[in-house]
Fold:
Amino acid sequence: MLSVAMGVTVMTIAVRAGTSPVAEPQQTAPPPASAWRNLQVMPELKTAPAQDLYDTMDFMAGSLGVSCDYCHRVGSFEMDVKATKTRARDMIRMMRAINDANFGGRTTVTCNTCHHGHATPSAMPSPWYRNADEIATYLRSLPPEIGATPRAPTPAAPAEPMPPPDTVLANYLKAVGGASLRSVKLTGTFTSEQVSGAIEYLALFPDHFQITRTINGNTSRQIFNRDHGWLTAPDARVPMPASDLVRLTQDVRMKFFLPPAGPTAGMTVTGIEAIDSRPCYVLSVDTPLGRERWYFDTQSWLLMKVRRETPTHLGTAVRETEWRDFRDAGGAKRPFKMLEHGMSNEVDTTFTSIDTNLAVDPATFEPPPPVEKPSVTLPAADLDAVSGRYELAPGNVLTITHEGAQLFLTQASGVKTEVLASSQTEFFLKNLGITLTVHKNASGEVTSLTLKQGTVTRECPRVK
Ligand code: HEC
Ligand code: HEC
Structure:
């Protein structure tokens, strides 16, 4: 769930989710997939990795050209409060019935087949539906007596032999500095529809990476150290699950101009396509994240674009990363702009500096020490007093319980976390950077609590 694509999705969800403060640790340490509470037409997603659900949701959003909140009250994804969500369920059933009846159950007709990026599909074709090439091909296909004027046959494109993948990759690595590249640091800013902030990408090759984002003065980090990874924020330190690490490491390499790891045996150079009218070799490769196409400029060998096609439960989702504004930095041309387009989000990153072969201390990639905040043991009466249900957002209730001397907080998603006390009224969630302050009335009953994570604060009244 922590592919860099996910890094973006995590933010998107947190933000689109109206930044329900507890949403973040829940996503950084993904809930067991069984935490989904209201999957009626896709129950198979309950036992699949959580990322499958997000990819599938992204696919629907992209097909309709909408964001999550078109179907959801964000923060309470399980609730059925919008007619569009119910309608989407009907559509999933319809889509499956069409495919079962006509295409042997293969996912052939998808949301996008009809919707094409519009929430309400148009029954009327556009006169400009064909693009110029298609119109030209169509006209050429007409017999001369039907076509208005006879047309010269198109000259057959010279059959140019494609270079083998090894050659393309070797030339690319040479263009970016290849074997002499020991470290890279890219510093800049990113903006998306919902958030913007400062970003730093740091790599110590071959297998140490770090991404630091600062949003509204709040810094969070993804750290990769060979086969370990962590997500950190002030007072927070969450290990990445091993399955996420594989996906994410694959993805993060791309940000540092590294082609997919592994043997080139499965790779093919499928042809030449133009990007911004520059011809590019297209290298096709199957990765753990889906089928990818890497576009290398045939003149400079620089990487212009990576397109990834990820199978989801409803169809194939597409994500593209493009690089532009190549300038000299550290003895090679390097891109100062990176554009990422997902099915339901877009992130533009502008780099202000790209430094190579800086002295980078490997200790930078060591896990931060666990956050040791002193805690106190409260008498049972205090634990009883705070135990109860608190409303984080309409329909999104947090439950505090105690088992013996230990307090727990259970989120609406089912994720349960230990709560420690700093005092009778101050509590915290260890390593998640979340504090809770309880408020009492004159007779000593707890009436509400204030939940704080980073700069986000929520008042949560107690509910019955
Ligand atoms: C076109 C409508 C639509 C869009 C857009 C959409 N969803 Fe969904 N979502 C659904 C439907 C329908 C379900 C329930 C599926 C089922 O019943 O099996 C669902 C279920 C979910 C669930 C499971 C909640 C639970 O506990 O049952 C989550 C989480 C979720 N969506 C997140 C998202 C996110 C994040 C986005 C934006 C990237 C998104 N959705 C976009 C229609 C949508
Ligand atoms: C066979 C074509 C077809 C497919 C496939 C299809 N839809 Fe639709 N969908 C339509 C049409 C047509 C409408 C508009 C119906 C109307 O005008 O009342 C619609 C309407 C909707 C609406 C309501 C929008 C509104 O304007 O109120 C939602 C939400 C929706 N579709 C979601 C989906 C999702 C999600 C999928 C894929 C799981 C999907 N559709 C697949 C044809 C399709």
Q: What stands out?
A: Residues 60, 64, 84, 87-88, 91-92, 95, 109, 111, 113-115, 119-121, 314 surround heme C (ligand 2) (CB under 6 Å). Residues 1-33, 147-156 have pLDDT under 50 and may be disordered.
